[in-house]
Predict the structure.
Amino acid sequence: MPLFETESIVLKSYSLAEADRIVVFYTRDHGMVRGVAKGAKRLKSRFGSTLEPFSIVNLEYFLKEDRELVSIQRVDLVRSAFDIASEPSFLQAFSYLADLLTAIAPPHDPNETLYRMVRACLESKVTSAEDLAAISLYFEVWLLRLGGFLPDWSTCSRCRRSLAEFETADLDAEFEILCGECSRGRGIQKVPPTYRHAVRDALRMPPPGFIEAGRERREVIAELSGIFKRLITRAIGTDRPVERAFTLRAK
């Protein structure tokens, strides 16, 4: 029964029996880990406040063969998220992102690129609902990219012509881009160049830079997030992000 130690992000927890909790972590070295924290609900629990959602911790656990739930031995707090997680708007936004992550990321399958992205989003300074919308879109774009589901919006999917910098295109039913000549008005939604620029920026910028840029394009972020939520729903095969449906991979 091997013992593992890794930096982790606490995503959520559930009650188990009278005194225990099941805790979901996303770890740097081992991907998604679900484990039992015995006695975590007791007033004098050895875990204290280390299992608060979105805290960054050092996690130590035993992994038993043929069991998905690990046995949590020790959790040391690296960075508390209590101050920001107590804000209802932050909690709602990041709970949605945690649901997406637990739906998509396979257990015990490390992806350091994804881990670094999630941690960078958590550590970004968000001061408004607009900032939370920007960080949510950033998260959605990167989940789709690492899962291999992010469409290439730089070229027409039919004629393969590279779109001009300020060219408006059309979105087809597969969430691919069509130039005006190929679409001939039959697309399901217009995709102005500002939409494509925002997706490009999400892939090039760190989260704080994207948040700053997002303050000047709130409507674009709202429209794009609606598009990508529909794409994520199709990718995971459900309206609620509760089942793993594709494997993330670094590119």
Summary: The mean pLDDT is 89. Residues 218-236 form the longest helix (19 residues).
